[in-house]
Design a protein that fits this description.
Elements (H helix, E strand, L loop, with lengths): L3 E6 L6 H6 L3 E3 L2 E4 L2 E4 L6 H11 L4 E3 L3 H13 L3 E6 L7 H9 L7 E5 L4 H16 L4 H11 L3 E6 L4 H5 L5 H10 L1 E8 L2 E9 L2 H13 L10 E6 L2 H15 L4 E5 L2 H7 L3 E7 L3
Parallel strand pairs: 1-2, 1-6, 6-7, 11-12
Antiparallel strand pairs: 3-4, 3-5, 8-9, 8-13, 9-10, 11-13
Length: 283
């Protein structure tokens, strides 16, 4: 039986240590400022993006890896005799999934399994770690893919955004919504639902109230929460991330609570000081 190598894209925002320890392949998306194109997490950092947005007043564009990018990443692994499971950013948000499928079709059938995560960031990371553990136990690429198709429906991903500015610049809210939201200090709470990002609440006042609401939403699922791994992701929101980690350690009994830094693509859409919580429900 062939070994299985797990791949994902840069929006999984995996810590470098996880990538190295578990030999996870990452195909970067692109961040585009005017005529300049950068590889997410390779040529540019989130901090650089926030600075450039503050100076220019406009957001970068983001773009999926091309089929050729995926073929270049997959080719050495396939030629070595190993199979691949690739877990993509939600297909509702990007053409990344479709481009990976096109690349996979250039190789013998069954050698590359392409899975739509239907989520982002730490939600993808949770699926990656499930896949890594399954591969280490000798499961085939097809078996891992079938497991992931079931597990992805149980991933909970929720974010609190600090400001409407990035949503406004990205065309996701109107100027009036941005003005009123800023005036009233409204913090949007967003959630992944069937692959798409949808608003599930707006908390008026201090950001801590919105973070607390997100925490309580998670604790409402404590009896169904997979206790193996929970992920907190943030963009320059260390204090809120630390608060969530401490509270969840005390209240959930989860074996591992990882804090990760959301990368350039997520930061380009949500902006700085965003914090998110991701976990898997037991079936």
């Amino acid at each position: 039986m062939s070994n299985v190598k797990i791949f994902s894209d840069s929006t999984s925002d995996l810590p470098q240590g996880w990538k190295e320890t578990y030999d996870i392949g990452i195909v970067p998306l692109y961040v585009i400022f005017a005529e300049e194109t950068y590889k997410d997490g390779v040529d540019i950092t989130p901090e650089e993006i926030y600075h450039r947005v503050a100076v220019s007043g406009s957001l970068p564009k983001t773009a999926a890896p091309s089929p050729a990018d995926f073929m270049a990443a997959f080719k050495p692994v396939i030629e070595s005799g190993d199979d691949i499971v690739y877990i993509s950013l939600s297909s509702a948000l990007s053409s990344t999934y479709q481009n990976a499928l096109l690349a996979a079709r250039e190789y013998p059938a069954g050698r590359i399994q392409v899975i739509d995560s239907k989520t982002v960031c730490g939600g993808i990371a949770l699926l990656i770690m499930k896949a890594v553990r399954a591969a280490s136990k000798g499961h085939s690429a097809v078996e891992i893919a079938e497991m992931l198709k079931q597990t992805r429906e149980l991933v909970e991903t929720e974010f609190v955004i600090d400001t409407l500015d990035y949503l406004y610049m990205g065309g996701r809210c109107s100027g009036m919504q941005n003005f009123i939201g800023s005036l009233l200090k409204i913090r949007p709470v967003l959630k992944m639902v069937d692959g798409s990002i949808v608003p599930v609440g707006k908390v008026r006042g201090k950001k801590e109230k919105a973070v607390e609401q997100m925490l309580q939403n998670a604790l409402a699922n404590i009896n169904r929460m997979d206790k193996e791994l929970l992920i907190i992701a943030h963009t320059l929101a260390e204090e809120e991330a630390q608060y969530l980690q401490t509270a969840l350690w005390e209240m959930t009994g989860v074996e591992e609570i990882a804090v990760i830094h959301a990368g350039c693509v997520i930061g380009s859409h949500c902006g700085p000081h965003t914090v998110g919580l991701m976990y898997i429900l037991e079936s």
